[in-house]
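INTERNAL AUDIT FORM
Audit reference: QA-55
Scope: verify that the stored structure record matches its stored sequence.
Auditor: D.O.
Record contents follow.
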Amino acid sequence: MSASIVKRSANLLKNSKQIINNANAAKDKKLENELETIKKMAKFKFDIEYQSNFRTNFQYEEKELFIFNHKGWITGYFDNDTSSSDLVLMRCGQKKPKGILLGDCNMSDFEFYEKGEQKYRETPTINPISGEDLLGRQRCMKFFRENFPKNLKYVKDTGDYKISQIDTQFKRKVFNCNLTLSHYGCFFDSIKIIFASPNKLLHFEDLVVNFSLEELQYMFVQTIQEYKNRASQHLLNPPLIPPEMYERIHEITQEIHGEKLFEKKCLYTAAVFRKIHKLYPENILFMPNYLVQRTYENM
């Protein structure tokens, strides 16, 4: 009788150890899965927040103006650049402008933020330029109240004015200067928001009329050659994805072909700035960095 009890006790002890081992193994497996999930989430967050556009060997262009007895400023920036996002908001906080002029945003461009790719499926239109088309505050207010809360393409940093576009294909967050400045301006009743860029269709039409295909092709080849030279001399960080390469090529084009390709654009923006600056003092015009000097010369 005692032998059977001992045997039964041994079996119970063995089964208990097996149950404990199985429970520990299941617990370890669960912890391992949770750890793997945390790692994946952390990696995805890092990929989304990753910004490879830390530029070197350059400085931001900034100009101070005094026309019509009013002081104003022109500040350069780069889209998809972390330091630019801090710079433009810092300048707004320092200068406390009466007007924010978006030098690279037209009313038709703002429609893209509202409609996305659907805008390009519609028939392009070019309307006569009127003074009402320059005023953007009401348009921006409507966008941030109605469209932005349900728009999954854009995200705002917590506790800040910075707005970025989410690139799901390459898992990156692209700082958008125009939306950031518009969002900042909407928080202050005294700030006017002005669309100071010409319609891109008009700009492209002007280029087509004034330059032959061979001239445009030659300028493109020059830009690519300059890109290769700077990359070989380590004057720019090599882009890791195709959109960043396009951004670099676009910036180099503005820098070395600004007089030919962007002169009319800068003339238009300078004219808008003068018109607004005559009415309101202390305005800031935000322009792509390599077009600041050319716009300043046209003032």
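Auditor finding: record pair retrieved intact. Residues 277 and 283 are 7 Å apart (CA to CA).
Action required: none
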